[in-house]
Amino acid sequence: MALTVHNMSVKAGKDLKITGVPQINAEGFTINLGQGDENIALHFNVRFNQHGDRRTVVFNSKHAGSWSSEQREKSFPFKEGEEFKVYVSFNKSTFQIKMPGNTVSFPNRFGANKFMFIQVLGDVRIKGFKIS
């Protein structure tokens, strides 16, 4: 499954809500927020069994095609075949990512107040997508 949205403004102070269901036997899925494929301010990668990781959530950013240092979260609230809701909000310095039962902070390494690119990739079915 892939969902890519260009030219949809997500501004600081707004909430991005994504509702989805990971596929049965999912390897993983990714939510990206940024300016485009080569400039991703928030890379939110849920790994069921992917890239040598099991039941791990990885956060990162990519600037001009180069990845920065990862932040890993051992809390893993996702289950194959079960609906989840993820809320993302941000300001110039920090992203707040609310997952089921846990909220994680990740630095806004771009320092931007607005992003125009949203992408969801991988073994997930998107049921809802809302900016409020």
From TrEMBL:
Positions of the Galectin domain: 2-132
Gene Ontology molecular function terms on file: carbohydrate binding; laminin binding
Coiled coil: none
Keyword Transcription regulation carried by entry: no
Protein name from the UniProt record: Galectin
Entry keyword Lyase: no
InterPro entries for the chain: ConA-like_dom_sf, Galectin-like, Galectin_CRD
Species: Paramormyrops kingsleyae
Keywords: Lectin
Recorded GO CC terms: extracellular space
